[in-house]
Write a structure and sequence with these properties.
Elements lengths: L3 E4 L2 E3 L5 E7 L8 E7 L6 E6 L5 E3 L7 E6 L4 E6 L8 E8 L3 E3 L3 E5 L2
Parallel strand pairs: 2-11
Antiparallel strand pairs: 1-3, 3-8, 4-5, 4-9, 5-6, 7-8, 9-10, 9-11
């Protein structure tokens, strides 16, 4: 089974930055669509960013221009660089790998607060 472990979350002030990382247990980053989801308190899980095997990226409107998803196929990692963070970005962020099915990590908490 594919295992994913997220890291890099924490407490940051509005306007700050964080970089989330996801390490994958198998060499599948290059052949799976990879993404980041988040779930804020009282809200449903939301797709934040995704990157296809061909390198195409997709972002939810609220993070466009602030977040960047990238992958390193050799290291089997996926990253999410988050700039200009807002309180509404507060959520648990999950790494996702999918092809015919989906695999999820345990999540990492991001809290944006003064």
């Amino acid at each position: 089974q594919v295992q994913l472990v997220e890291s890099g979350g924490g407490l940051v002030q509005p306007g700050g930055s964080l970089r989330l990382s996801c390490v994958v247990s198998r060499s599948i980053v290059s052949i799976f669509t990879m993404g980041w989801y988040r779930q804020a308190p009282g809200k449903q899980r939301e797709l934040v960013a995704a990157i296809s095997t061909g390198g195409s990226t997709n972002y939810t409107d609220s993070v466009k221009g602030r977040f960047t998803i990238s992958r390193d196929n050799a290291k089997n990692t996926v990253s999410l660089r988050m700039n200009s963070l807002k309180p509404e970005d507060t959520a648990v962020y999950y790494c996702d790998a999918r092809r015919t099915g989906s695999y999820w990590g345990q999540g990492t908490q991001v809290t944006v607060s003064s």
